[in-house]
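Hey L., structure's done. Input below.
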Amino acid sequence: MISVALVAVCAMFGQESPDLQAVKDVCGKCHAVNMFLNKPRSWERWNDVFADMTRRGADGTNDQLAQVTKYFLQNLTLVNVNTSPAEELGWVLEVSDDVAATIVERRQVKPFANLAQLKALPGVDATKLEQRKTRIAF
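Output:
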């Protein structure tokens, strides 16, 4: 996972994630990417934006589009631990499919109330959750 802060640090030293470069190559054809880099949204909303941009002519190679998707999921997508689908949880929280399924099972019994409860699950990386906490809702 490459956070927006890490991307900024890498940019200072002349390094950039390949996923961010793909975002610049695809999305930057029509507008500056800084207009959305600090504006997280739900995955549903991002899909609406992608559909609109595609209708307006945005395109890229299959590899570029996969990298754009990965970047948005890992850096710009909001997730609700108690309602989001397992696949979104896996991408945004950067957990395995098994851990995402465990989150879904656990929330059906007792919804998560806070980050500490989520961190207590086996297989969840507390450091990654801290990095993403502004994009995690309960």
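The helical segments are 4-12, 18-27, 43-55, 62-75, 86-93, 97-109, 115-119, 126-132. The chain is about 55% helix and 5% strand.

-- N.
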